[in-house]
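Reopening: Protein ARV still failing for me.
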Amino acid sequence: TAPRMCVECNQEARELYRDYSRGVIKITICKSCQKPVDKYIEYDPVIILIDAILCKVQAYRHIILNIKVNIHWKLCTFCLLCEAYLRWSRLQDSHQTLDPTDIIRYAKEWDFYQMFGLASLELAAFLSGVFFFLWLTKKDLIRKKTNLHTMLTALLLSGYGKLLVIPAVIWEHDYSPLYINLIEFFVLISNSQAVRGNVLTISD
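Support: Ran it again with your exact input. Result attached.
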């Protein structure tokens, strides 16, 4: 099996747990820090999600390095759709008032696709900026394709905070710029924690 990482001290571990007979499972203890390699193995997904929302580096390492989730592209696409719709609704509100129940008319609006393209370009620029910064500071890390893939996954998954625009979409235009700014600030903190956790891990 592929090596895993200790969520506490970043050291590599052979396994997260050992499965004995009759369903008896024992979590592996890290040889470096003498703590469980990944305590989240025993945690309920809701607890893991709460720790991720609290931007705990250990939770990010568990999700990105030890369980290898493959939903980052789907999550990214959904977040971009939400962000594009929010921008599109602002644009439409500044020009004319449309029936919010007219879903077919929404789908035919080219402005929506333009907003989606703009949001995608901004995300691509952000990712390029992060990787360029890492290339300047940690060239050895960026040269490895596995590290690039891990970092890209971390950045895309840590952008889940953009889903908080859904309430703004549901409530139509009853939201304030402060709410949107808080979402952007939260996403930035989440991205920073994801980069911090993974750079430390794959550079040790």
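The chain is about 60% helix and 5% strand. If you still see a failure, please send the error message rather than a screenshot.
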